[in-house]
TrEMBL record:
Residues 157-318 form the Integrase catalytic domain. GO terms for cellular component: cytosol. The keyword Lyase does not apply. Required for the transposition of the insertion element. One of its GO terms (molecular function) is transposase activity. InterPro entries: Homeodomain-like_sf, Integrase_cat-core, IS30-like_HTH, RNaseH-like_sf, RNaseH_sf, Transposase-Integrase, Transposase_IS30-like, Transposase_IS30_CS. It comes from Panacagrimonas perspica. This is IS30 family transposase. Keywords: DNA recombination, DNA-binding, Transposition. Gene3D superfamilies: Ribonuclease H-like superfamily/Ribonuclease H. One of its GO terms (biological process) is DNA transposition. Belongs to the transposase IS30 family.
Amino acid sequence: MSYVQLTPGERYMLGQLLKQGLSVPKIADQMGRHRTTIWREVRRNVRGNDPLYRWYEAQERSNGRRSRSRRNRRLSDEDLALIERCLADKWSPEQIANRGALLFALEVSHETVYRHVWRDKRRGGQLFRHLRLSQKQKRKRYGAYDSRGRLAGKRHISERPEAANQRSEFGHWEIDTVMGSPDQHCVVTLVERSTGYTLIGKLRDRSAQGLTRQVISMIQRERSGSFKTITSDNGTEFHSYKDIEQATGVIFYFATPHHAWERGTCENTNGLLRQYLPKRTSTARVTQDRCDFLARELNSRPRKRHGYFTPEEMRRAA
């Protein structure tokens, strides 16, 4: 395992534990670090004429060393080509910086990637179009009757198992539809909460019957035991959920109306999908093969919450 420098939070914790009089081995155990790492940090930052360890001064010295070590480094043409390939694959600058270090030994910060993108834009380039841009327009519904959620017998999200809430096991999914325009064609997304693993299905319309058939097919194509629960919003396309439960044994739960954050995993994934299926564009020509390709694209993108491992890698480890 490669050495990872102490974070500012770890340096603060080290300072507090030293004040309490703990020994270096005990501090290392509490911090989950090798004691050599702690010895090295203390030796670097405790002077003979000032025996106190001040975490903020230690952090400033660390920043200075890192800055000096990289001051004269320039990205090669090969590095820039790699960055641009990752951008074309819809990786964010932060994903490029962190996953690039793991896969390609690419040493670059996400700020540097952004600078390269904006420099390219000033020169007339198109790299910026690969970035995820949020242009969602929100509107309030004044005076309109809202029928969402008016379906008897639904299980509220508050009844969902704790394992689903805590993302502690594989098999708890969120579901949503992503609309095209101006026709009725759309896609349905299923996103697993613990890994972010995504399935995408094509729908010719947003009807409950069409969605039910597609979701049953998607579940049955997966390995046995992959689905335990599904959480959805209150759209009418999910009103035949009992047919899905009966056919697959999966239990449905419904979020509170207008509480999109209760299905944050799916909302975030749909935002990533919009990079490939922009709003106000038709999905009539999107085939199931295309949906499967887009799912593979999303499942092979590194995620920050997984330490820049991909959903596919996390699923294999589940």
